[in-house]
From TrEMBL:
One of its GO terms (molecular function) is D-ribulokinase activity. InterPro entries: ATPase_NBD, Carb_kinase_FGGY, FGGY_C, FGGY_RbtK-like. One of its GO terms (cellular component) is cytoplasm. The keyword Transferase applies. Belongs to the FGGY kinase family. It comes from the Eukaryota. SUPFAM superfamilies: Actin-like ATPase domain. Gene3D superfamilies: 1.20.58.2240, 3.30.420.40. GO terms for biological process: pentose metabolic process. Residues 202-397 form the Carbohydrate kinase FGGY C-terminal domain. Keywords: Kinase, Transferase. This is Carbohydrate kinase FGGY C-terminal domain-containing protein.
């Protein structure tokens, strides 16, 4: 267990050195600390005086051998391999049960069948099949399921809580954000998802990258979108996850003063340039951004794509900065529209967007998404949706509630939400802009 803890705590690198008389390999930590070494001799032949010959084939074989001694000293000593959410729940409870969220979304686990032994064998890791896959997870459960007997004595002391406090099976952070907003009560706001099943909603977790989370009662296969993943966010439901890479990085906010950031400053400047909120979209008619500077995650699924800007001039005024910022927001919103259209073609019926994360605090970003998609956007009045979703897991694990769905529903009936409707008067103008 200590070896597993050490391996999960750090990233390691293998260095190979081929010398005159031997091949050596070393396991080095990110901090540059040498953890383990292995060495094998290289044969040297002298067919005649002062003439030396070595075998390149043997050198390669020795390289492979020393990298495999490293395996015996490190890999074979590891008791378990965890994704971070499962590692934290194991530290808290001592329970080795893995969350379906991590195993289905980030590994190769497919419920109800489980692990695919042929995959691990094909990549040379057949040793992970031993003891019913005990090293990577032989017991699984849906998110929010109670783990073990709750907090161990040691973990409780570290956290300042009572031993036995219930701990729920974990979620990946973006999935916790999705859970934290999808159960919102929007009665009285006259939005299309009112009185409709939760499958009519999409959660957008807008941070450094943006994740588009939607669930369905049956598996829907969407080109370029991850999934479908059973019980990966809501137990018993299938999850599809689209995404955009480096969205927050494209419009990363930097404080101008203590009370003003670049978002609010440029938003205000754009309104001045347009003379009204309604005409801001039209300012971007001659400047266009392709936002895939870090590749396209969905729905093109092409990591080799690069970004592009069309319509630049030699001018470098504040107006030019504001227009480039606007064009970037519009590009991101149209990327979301592309994901939505692809998911709808595959069978999703999404009628309302629910946003959380840093970019959702930017009202222009939100409004442009409403304009581009033609859908209302719901924002929670509490901005920490990921923490809310994590708390739902704990509430479910405590068995105060019968299910995640019930807890999320009751929690959100006690909260209010702001709704940003698309401005219908601008639909024709925006459509004309898109056509142009």
């Amino acid at each position: 267990v200590l070896s597993a803890r050490l391996l999960m705590a750090e990233i390691y690198y293998v260095g190979v050195d081929v010398g005159t008389g031997s091949v050596r390999a070393a396991l080095v930590s990110r901090a540059g600390v040498l953890r383990s070494t292995a060495q094998e001799p290289i044969s040297i032949w002298e067919p005649q005086a002062d003439h030396y010959v070595q075998s390149s084939t043997e050198i390669w074989e020795k390289c492979c051998t020393v990298v495999k001694n490293l395996k015996e000293s490190c890999w074979n000593k590891a008791a378990h391999f965890f994704d971070l959410p499962d590692f934290l729940s194991w530290k808290a409870t001592g329970c080795l049960t893995r969350s379906l969220c991590t195993l289905v979304c980030k590994w190769t686990y497919c419920p109800p069948e489980g692990w695919d032994a042929t995959f691990w064998t094909s990549i040379g890791l057949e040793d992970l099949l031993e003891n019913n896959f005990s090293k990577i997870g032989s017991v699984t459960c849906p998110p929010g399921s109670p783990l073990g007997d709750g907090l161990t004595q040691e973990a409780a002391a570290d956290l300042g809580l009572d031993p036995g406090t219930a701990v729920g099976a974990s979620l990946i952070d973006a999935h916790a954000g999705g859970l934290g907003v999808l159960g919102a009560d929007v009665q009285g706001f006259d939005v299309p998802c009112d009185d409709q099943p939760i499958t009519s909603r999409m959660a957008m977790i807008c941070g450094t990258s943006t994740c588009h989370m939607a669930i369905s009662e049956r598996p829907l296969f969407v080109p370029g979108v991850w999934g479908p993943c059973l019980s990966a966010m809501v137990p018993g439901m299938w999850l599809n996850e689209g995404g955009q890479s480096a969205t927050g990085r494209l419009v990363s906010p930097r404080p101008l003063t203590q009370d003003c950031n670049i978002y609010s400053y440029l938003n205000s400047h754009l309104r001045v340039m347009a003379d009204s909120d309604s005409a801001v979209d039209l300012l971007g008619s001659n400047l266009h951004v392709w936002p895939d500077f870090h590749g396209n995650r969905s729905p093109l699924a092409d990591p080799t794509l690069k970004g592009m800007v069309i319509g630049l001039s030699l001018s470098q005024t504040l107006d030019d900065l504001a227009l480039l910022y606007l064009a970037t927001l519009q590009a991101l919103a149209l990327g979301t529209l592309h994901i939505l259209e692809t998911m709808k073609e595959a069978g999703h019926d999404i009628r309302t967007l629910f946003l959380c994360g840093g970019l959702s605090k930017n009202t222009l970003f939100v409004q442009i998404h409403a304009n581009a998609t033609g859908l209302p956007v719901v924002l929670p009045d509490q901005t920490e949706a990921v923490l809310i979703g994590a708390a739902v897991l704990g509430a479910c694990a405590s068995q105060d509630y019968s299910s995640i769905q019930r807890r999320a529903s009751d929690l959100f009936y006690e909260r209010k939400f702001k709704v940003f409707h698309r401005l219908f008067a601008h639909q024709r103008e925006y459509q004309a802009l898109m056509d142009h």
